[in-house]
Amino acid sequence: MDKILYNLVKINTKLFEINLDNYDEGNSPDKTITVSFKVNSKFCNISVLSEIQYNQENRNIIKLQVECVFNIEPNSFKGLTENGKITIPAALARTLFATTTSTARGVLFDKLEDTILKNEILPIPDWNEIKDLEQNI
Description:
The protein has helices at about 75-80, 90-110, and strands at about 5-20, 30-40, 45-55, 60-70, 80, 85-90, 135. It is α+β, with helices and mostly antiparallel strands. The longest helix has 23 residues, at about 90-110. Helices cover about 20% and strands about 45% of the residues.
């Protein structure tokens, strides 16, 4: 399939927790980003959840979950589907993951603007290692 047509239709901050009790300003927190996805074949959409965590000395400082929902044009969705499985090409997965994570980074920046963590900018992840993703539908 040459071109997969899609549109970002929803952004949802599912969770934001912050705990700055005993935060050590001299010790930058460890930062992790994980992403997961799910497919809804009824609505031809893919949801991507980006979770960002800041930890310091085994304490959770920040936890943020942002979900982006992408509608896939029905003919494009059909082209991704075969034998009850959907295969998301690596290039599309990278784009959806990057869009969702960038959105989450913006939400995080906004939520931390008036805190002591305002300069703890989250690095941009490299999604080049992503392979085609498959999921049963």
